[in-house]
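Researcher: Here's the sequence for the chain we discussed earlier.
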Amino acid sequence: MSAEKERIFRALKDVVQKFGNGICADCQLPEPEWASTTLGIFICLKCSGIHRNIPDVSKIKSLLLDPWEDFQIQYMAQHGNGAAKEKYEAFVPTYYYIPTYMDCQVLREQWIRSKYERKDFIEGTKPLPYATGYREGFLWKRGRDNGQFLNRKFVLSEAEGTLKYFAKTDVGLVLF
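Model: Thanks. This is the structure I predict for it:
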């Protein structure tokens, strides 16, 4: 390894060892090996794949494989996971489920998109679309017979205390 690469590797290692940077900023998996150079966060391999799908928000680099410039390392040192958490998770509701590395890809993707793409938790006065007591949309539900995921319409009503979803369009609603 050349002296320049060794210097850059040591500088990155020092930044990763700062408090909060030693776990993935999105799922808390220890020892992240990737980073978003636009957000200034350190992330795991699986979360980096999600970030790659939102390139207008996040540019991804490997800590070990990609070349790094000094200004990028300085940016990462100035920001880091702690600063990102303070900014992007400032107003996460207490009832909101924050996924971890043990959760499925879909949950982690929705968490990442709500934090960085939609910026749902930056402003405390911003009403969340699911906090109004009523929400309808589509979800992926695992089929009972074949185990495949199927797209289903759902209605969540706080007033009725129910989650309803259409099992089949011609049959009607199923209550849970």
